[in-house]
Automatic annotation (TrEMBL):
<keyword id="KW-0812">Transmembrane</keyword>
<dbReference type="InterPro" id="IPR010982">
    <property type="entry name" value="Lambda_DNA-bd_dom_sf"/>
</dbReference>
<protein>
    <recommendedName>
        <fullName>HTH cro/C1-type domain-containing protein</fullName>
    </recommendedName>
</protein>
<dbReference type="Pfam" id="PF01381">
    <property type="entry name" value="HTH_3"/>
</dbReference>
<keyword id="KW-1133">Transmembrane helix</keyword>
<keyword id="KW-0472">Membrane</keyword>
<keyword id="KW-0238">DNA-binding</keyword>
<feature type="transmembrane region" description="Helical">
    <location>
        <begin position="97"/>
        <end position="117"/>
    </location>
</feature>
<feature type="domain" description="HTH cro/C1-type">
    <location>
        <begin position="15"/>
        <end position="69"/>
    </location>
</feature>
<dbReference type="GO" id="GO:0003677">
    <property type="term" value="F:DNA binding"/>
</dbReference>
<dbReference type="InterPro" id="IPR001387">
    <property type="entry name" value="Cro/C1-type_HTH"/>
</dbReference>
């Protein structure tokens, strides 16, 4: 079974890293986005996906350009692929491919390295 992740999980973890860097709680983000904290947690964990307008709103709240979030996610995707891991675009595809999805800690460690290196 191949190891991998979803692009939504990567984007969610990028946002989590940026949120943590600014000492903003999940509750504060959820309130700003007008959703529950549980719903926000699903976005950060890649179990739900952000719309383009939600992504722009998150970027505004975190004071980063929207393209920077995508750039960090794309850099992480490239790193995952270089390590021989698969990146899929939805959980159904991951199930179909029989991927063993990486945990949030593993994804977060790679993303933290990328975000910190870009500062």
């Amino acid at each position: 079974m191949d190891a991998g992740t979803t692009y939504s999980a990567i984007v969610g973890n990028v946002i989590k890293q940026l949120r943590d860097d600014r000492s903003i709680s999940q509750g504060d983000m959820a309130e700003k986005m007008d959703i529950s904290q549980a719903a926000w947690s699903k976005l950060e964990n890649g179990k739900s996906t952000l719309s383009a307008s939600q992504l722009a709103k998150v970027a505004d709240f975190l004071s980063v350009p929207t393209h920077q979030i995508i750039r960090y996610a794309d850099d992480a995707k490239k790193n995952f692929k270089a390590e021989g891991m698969k990146v899929t675009y939805d959980n159904k595809e991951a199930d179909k491919l029989g991927l063993m999805l990486l945990g949030a800690a593993a994804i977060g460690a790679i993303i933290a390295t990328i975000v910190m290196a870009k500062k």
